[in-house]
């Protein structure tokens, strides 16, 4: 094989490799988003266990800095007691969705995962809980928002 043929084949191989990498580029963020969703989901489940057990003060301590800037520990404890106590004991919780985003209304840009759960309580058979972990400045995922309907 002549040198020109080897160079042509080498160039074609590099071109195919480059095209292959380019084609995979849209999926690179997907792996990062999936890892973020997994880490955020673990954080949300740990945090929800604190709320479920009535350990509201510790749930505030474990929340994100953004969460703590929005509500004091006393305000949080009062609000979560008022929202959760009438519902009774948690009977079931099933994750419905998890959506990675970098922007949320009323929050600074960052990394968030909005997770929704279909939940059932003793006194409310069908509820939707929305938990929003965010990546804090130290790189750890912590809950920045909690809503129940």
Give short descriptive properties of this protein:
Nuclear Transport Factor 2, Chain: A; globular; alpha+beta; 4 helices; four-stranded antiparallel beta sheet; disordered N terminus; 149 residues
Question: Would you mind describing this structure in some detail?
Answer:
With 149 residues, the protein is of the alpha+beta class. The chain has one domain (3-148): NTF2-like, domain 1 (Nuclear Transport Factor 2, Chain: A, Roll), CATH 3.10.450.100. The protein is 50% helix and 26% strand. It is built from four helices and four strands, in the order H-H-H-H-E-E-E-E. The chain has a four-stranded antiparallel sheet with strand order 1-2-3-4. A hairpin with a 5-residue loop joins strand 3 (127-135) and strand 4 (141-148). It is globular, with a radius of gyration of 23 Å. The N and C termini lie far apart (72 Å). Residues 3-29 have low confidence and may be disordered.
How do the strands and helices of this protein lay out in sequence?
Layout: H1 3-52, H2 56-61, H3 65-70, H4 73-84, E1 90-101, E2 112-121, E3 127-135, E4 141-148
